Fold this protein.
Amino acid sequence: MFRTHTCGELNLSNVNETVTLSGWVSVLRDKGFMIWIDLRDRYGITQLIIDEERSEKALLDAARTLGREFVIQVTGKVIERASKNPNIPTGEIEILVEKLEILNESKLPPFTIEDKTDGGEELRMQYRYLDIRRNPVKNKLIFRHNVAQEVRKYLSDQGFIEVETPVLIKSTPEGARDFVVPSRMNPGQFYALPQSPQTFKQLMMVGGLDRYFQIVKCFRDEDLRADRQPEFTQIDCEMAFVEQEDILNIFEGLTKYLLKSIHNIDIEKFPRMTYDEAMRRYGNDKPDIRFGMEFHELDDLARDKGFDVFDKEELIVGICAPTLNSYTRKDIDRLLEWVQRPQIGARGFVWVRVNEDGTFKSSADKFYSEEHLASWAERMGAQKGDLMIVMAGKANDTRKQLSALRMELAERLELRKPDEFAPLWVVDFPLLEWDEESGRYHAMHHPFTSPKPEDISKLKSAPGEVRANAYDLVLNGNEIGGGSIRIYDRELQSQMFELLGFTAEQAQEQFGFLMNAFQYGAPPHGGIAFGFDRLVSILDGSETIRDYIAFPKNNSGRDVMIDAPAAIDQTQLDELEISLVKK
Amino acid sequence: MFRTHTCGELNLSNVNETVTLSGWVSVLRDKGFMIWIDLRDRYGITQLIIDEERSEKALLDAARTLGREFVIQVTGKVIERASKNPNIPTGEIEILVEKLEILNESKLPPFTIEDKTDGGEELRMQYRYLDIRRNPVKNKLIFRHNVAQEVRKYLSDQGFIEVETPVLIKSTPEGARDFVVPSRMNPGQFYALPQSPQTFKQLMMVGGLDRYFQIVKCFRDEDLRADRQPEFTQIDCEMAFVEQEDILNIFEGLTKYLLKSIHNIDIEKFPRMTYDEAMRRYGNDKPDIRFGMEFHELDDLARDKGFDVFDKEELIVGICAPTLNSYTRKDIDRLLEWVQRPQIGARGFVWVRVNEDGTFKSSADKFYSEEHLASWAERMGAQKGDLMIVMAGKANDTRKQLSALRMELAERLELRKPDEFAPLWVVDFPLLEWDEESGRYHAMHHPFTSPKPEDISKLKSAPGEVRANAYDLVLNGNEIGGGSIRIYDRELQSQMFELLGFTAEQAQEQFGFLMNAFQYGAPPHGGIAFGFDRLVSILDGSETIRDYIAFPKNNSGRDVMIDAPAAIDQTQLDELEISLVKK
């Protein structure tokens, strides 16, 4: 037996007991006549003591051979500490070591195993097995486990059953790019890894399973942006015989349950906002509503005042940044540069200081009188000491740019509090979005999303105006879940594929099994999927998904620890009947 | 709202309530003046009634348009049934329908949606979404969900944390064949799908996570035998600072917990048997101990009696089949043919009838006297009416053949009772097995398994005799779990790779990250993995794994429902920089 206790559990009630502990040497302090060791395991740290007075000399000698991260086993007596450490649960005791065994040695780790380490991200990823010895990383993985357990508990209690859907499925060129897997037994053919179990969960609804969920790995072969992983985890859910309202209630319930069980936070009823309203008020379909700085349209107040830059544009819209009159001229210039970066792409903005004496000072003083600016301030509810920022341009672009600025300012003003949680349902998404490049409509959610019944008549005449029974759950400015009521009528589904530019043959080849299934009594159904990696990080007050993944990949899709992907043997290629194309 | 209740919950306490139900038309009986409909959903069946006396004529007309598996929504009053059905929870009531709406029509299904269907396996797999409407299939999926929940509960309560390991990893030619995934971002390189998260779980132990588990999909590109799936699910577990005994206790606990929570069966302490003993007593390292028919070696009794067929063989071994003296001469001949089939490959056997009068009759009467046969009977504990069957040959082959016969006879005698559970630990497996084909040793479990410390000295001199700290959990003749204490010493691991024929370079290239990790304070650790698909089926009293998988693949690795794998577009191949090799 390697231990009688863990390093996190001994306290004054154990004094005089003889115990055995195992763990890693975290810190060793050698005062000559006395040696202290902080022994660490997953559960905590326990102080070991060896001294000239009470210990055999051989023990002191042995202790002096120990290095950081050596794995040792000790037996000794629990004694009360002279100087107690109130910051750790074991801080009132220490172990007077009687027996010490080195279980394994350790080279000096490439970075320190401490909460604040000296290791950079690259190095920590390469030695991820050492990184996860650190509390911040370990605790994030435990947090993730706890959230997963709570999700499963809630959904199971609600009658959902978790069903595993296949990982080796069929490639569908619609949507993002698939990872594919050559089939040795079926040469020339490939499986694809699922981007989501979408069609399987719909088939399960046709199959009468009624309430399904799964915490499941999904795959997308996309060029990786920061915090996008080629493999990611979803909480995938589907329900039959439901309307949108039923789904919102169940998953609002899930989110409330998680906030309560994890943070002991009660939230009454989640606010709801249509897509149009979210875009108008926040320029964003996933607004962070923990803070204000809402958009205010100024077309009626700022147009036709001789300011050519505004006059010719589709939309004039501004936000009021609280307390930001504190910005110097230089600060504002830098902010201007920030919005002009290619990532944001704004041409610029007009700023208006709201001075302490109630006067205004703006970058367009030539065109707008004190009175004009006062009318802007009134609309925006600007207070003394605030800074108004106004942009103009094409409506969609300008909203997007101003939204980016709003989020940036909120970061700077520390308005995005990690321990505050503001969920929001965004509903009534457009069914389709026009894609300039391909010159056709794309499904905004996916091709299985149902149009609102009252908008179906517009499918042919004005497809762009058709709204969908689709909804997103937004938490603190992040989309944590999205879903829709599905089409369950074969005819409507065919019409939808046609609208999306599928020929009848393509639709049959790729989704024939679903279309066939719809002929055999498909019930009304709908569902939602949560990005689990993101949900976990947001619930933990972070937005860095990678930290919550045990073995993440870097931005080139590489696992730098195991060095994958890698070349494979020619025999493997031969068996698969494929060859590499030299470029 | 589509329903106020499900089809499984209404009873006499709901009489006179007006309810709305949705579901599938399971059965429709039209007596002319009265129509009954069995409405089905996941939760049960509720009888609907429409009659000339109490219902509007339009309703009867509408009901007559319904076909099997139509999806309907009805509103009506709960009334007490005249003739009750005690076999279903809703059998005391029916719904007098007031409103009927067809939500979706259905073509006639290709097989009947009933517990005993007329559909063959092929057809049912093609229309799996209809198959899972049937109770036996649906209930198996719900059972699987329940087992998964219980497993997670037990392990979480024991301090295990579930960590998701990557699916896109690196190919290692050792072991079974990998599925590979070409990397578009790293042309010419491939990911592999994991055959198990083995190295990752060991790295997590190096990382101090202490207790890890995961219910996880694994992948093996093998030619499929019956009931082998290219993707399958494991309960994967690992613990640090443990000896074999600790692991056996924890996972004996898990199995007990499952038997108790699922079947309310208490099992005291699981028996243990060494590999050698299991082979000697049952000819099998996963013996079904629900019944006897143990092996008895007869070398000392049956050799040198002039029977040449036995005399020259390595092993003479028999079993006693209870009551099987009832077999006619013809039955025995057929049994002889059965063991001579190529799948079994035995040359034959000697049979000995134990007659009701205590005399014996054998197929080798010429060589063995009544007295000889009595000594055999005594050793085997044969009773009047039994049949002794004795084989001879090379020890290993003969044991395997006799084991197959033992299992076959147990099936015929109905000794393998599905509601009886007999777990067994098999321990002390050999570390290595000699592979004739490659002329070298292979790891019996895997290359990370630790030899027993007392046998390490034999690693060089007599590798075949080295026993491993490896163990299997056997349930009802099936290996449901297997694991080992791992090597955590870099030197020993190198030695092991060498023994298995790896060059130092190969070992470094394939497992370098693990070898490196062992330099930084690897703790003693070990683990186990359960085949979850098999565990679930055995716990449910079945051995047909495929029934417990929602969307299984056939023996060619195909999903016949979605028709995967399939050809992919040339543009996909081009992006991946691979091409098909025409053979």
